[in-house]
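May I ask for whichever protein you like with its backbone structure tokens?
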Amino acid sequence: MTRLCLALLAGLLLALALTGWRGAQLREVQRANAALAADLASRDQIIVRLREQAQMNAMREAALREQQSRASRLALNRERQIARETDARQALRQWSAAALPDDVIRLHSRPAFDNPRDYLGWLSARDQLSSAGQPPADAGRSGGR
């Protein structure tokens, strides 16, 4: 009988240990479940925010495309107006067909620069424009060609 009581007591202790272990497992699973639920909620908020940003970006892009289209139409209209004015006036046609003076060509030409220091060196080394009525100092050259 004592053995039976001891076996029963051992079985009872084993059942309690298993129950305690299962309870700890259950609590651990519940904590993991809560953490996953929080992660999912955070992910859902991020997805909603990204969708809103995508919609705003799409609206901004559409507005920019509209502005670009409007600017292109204005530029085309301006070019057509200039062409009409140029074609209508003989003096303007002759002026626009004439070559630019060497000093103006030199102002518009510049070498390619690798860094700002080269550009600043080029600016300080350039020749000054000649005074009005005097020939340029580098007569015969046109813009460093």
User: Anything to note?
Assistant: Residues 10-125 form one domain. Residues 139-145 have pLDDT under 50 and may be disordered. The longest helix spans residues 2-88.
